[in-house]
Amino acid sequence: xxxxxxxxxxxxxxxxxxxxxxxxxxxxxxxxxxxxxxxxxxxxxxxxxxxxxxxxxxxxxxxxxxxxxxxxxxxxxxxxxxxxxxxxxxxxxxxxxxxxxxxxxxxxxxxxxxxxxxxxxxxxxxxxxxxxxxxxxxxxxxxxxxxxxxxxxxxxxxxxxxxxxxxxxxxxxxxxxxxxxxxxxxxxxxxxxxxxxxxxxxxxxxxxxxxxxxxxxxxxxxxxxxxxxxxxxxxxxxxxxxxxxxxxxxxxxxxxxxxxxxxxxxxxxxxxxxxxxxxxxxxxxxxxxxxxxxxxxxxxxxxxxxxxxxxxxxxxxxxxxxxxxxxxxxxxxxxxxxxxxxx
Length: 343
Ligand code: UDP
Ligand code: MG
Fold this sequence. Notes:
GO cellular component, one term: plasma membrane
Bound molecules: uridine-5'-diphosphate, magnesium ion
Structural class: alpha/beta
Order of helices and strands: EHEHEHEHEHEHHEHHHE
Largest sheet: 8 strands, mixed
Strand content: 5-15%
Main location: membrane
Helix content: 40-55%
Distance between the termini: 31 Å
Number of helices: 10
Strand order of the largest sheet: 7-5-6-4-1-2-3-8
Pfam family, one: Glycos_transf_2
Subcellular location: Membrane
Number of strands: 8
Radius of gyration: 25 Å
Low-confidence stretches: 1-12
InterPro entries: Glyco_trans_2-like, Glycosyltransferase_2, Nucleotide-diphossugar_trans
C-alpha cells in the first residue's frame, strides 16, 4: 500500500494514534548494538551515513545520529569507535563488559535523542536501503515499523522448527501476539520508546516488550543478507536461554499446566487406589506389583522434578527482579549526536 513497496500491512488502519504532525521531518537516531563487530562496522558506518544523508536531502528527516553500543567488545571496536566518533552525528556508548544484546538495546534506547529511533544489527544483515521505507510507514501513521523476514530458508531445519515451536508456546492464550520472524530491525516513534523505557522489569525480552506496548504497528517484509563477518553470537544454547527468558517473562500457562498435570495424574491414582482397597476388603486379594511400584515411582518423581524445574525458572526471574541491579554499566560515552531533543 506504500509508495513503491510491495509491503503487506498487518494493520491496514494506519491512522496516527497521536496528534503529532508527521508532515514535519523528524530527527532520527540509529542504534546499533555491537559485540566484536569491528570488521562489519567499518563497512556499515559509511554506508549508513550515506543513506541517512540521502534521507535528509530528500526531506524525510531533518537530522540524524548514529549510536553504536559497544557491548564489551574485545576486538579493537573501542579504538575504531573513538576515531569515528570525532565526526559529527556519530556517537558510541561503551558498556563496561558484555551485558547481552537486550541490555545493549535498552542502553541505546535510553541514550537515543531522536524523535524516531531505528535499531539495526551491526553485522550488515539489516540493509540500510530499507530505511526510507521505514520512514514512509512512520509518516503514514505507524508508531512502530518492523521488518519481517520473508523466509527462513537460509536457516537449518532445527532452528526453523525451534523458532516455530517457541512462538506458538509464547503466544498461547496471550492477549497480544508476538509476531514470529520479526527481529530487532525496527523503527519506533518517540512515544513507543518512552513507553519501553518506562517499563520497570529487568528481564528485557525485547521482542515481547515491543508487542506488549501495542500502538499502531506495520510490518515490512525483507530478506536478511548473510552475515558479513564472523559468526552469529546466538549459538543454540544461547537461543534456548533467550527462549526461556521470553517464556517466563510473558507466559504463566506452564505453571497452570503443572497443576493440570498433577490433577490428571492424581485422579486415576485415587480411583485405582479405591478399586484395590475394595478388592482387598471384599475378596482378600492382595495385589502384587513390584514393577508397577517402580514404574510409578520413577514416573512421578520425574514429573515432580520437572514441575520443580518450571517453578524454579519463574522463581529465578523473581530473584533477578528483586535484586534490582542496573541493566548495564556504561564505561564511556563518545561523540556528539543530535542537539537537544525538540519538545
Ligand atoms: N550482540 C550484542 N551483544 C551480544 C550479542 C550480540 O550486542 O552479547 C549484537 C551483535 O553484535 C549484532 C546483533 O546483536 O549486532 C545481532 O547478533 P547476531 O548477528 O550474532 O545474531 P543473529 O543475527 O544471528 O540473530
Ligand atoms: Mg546477525
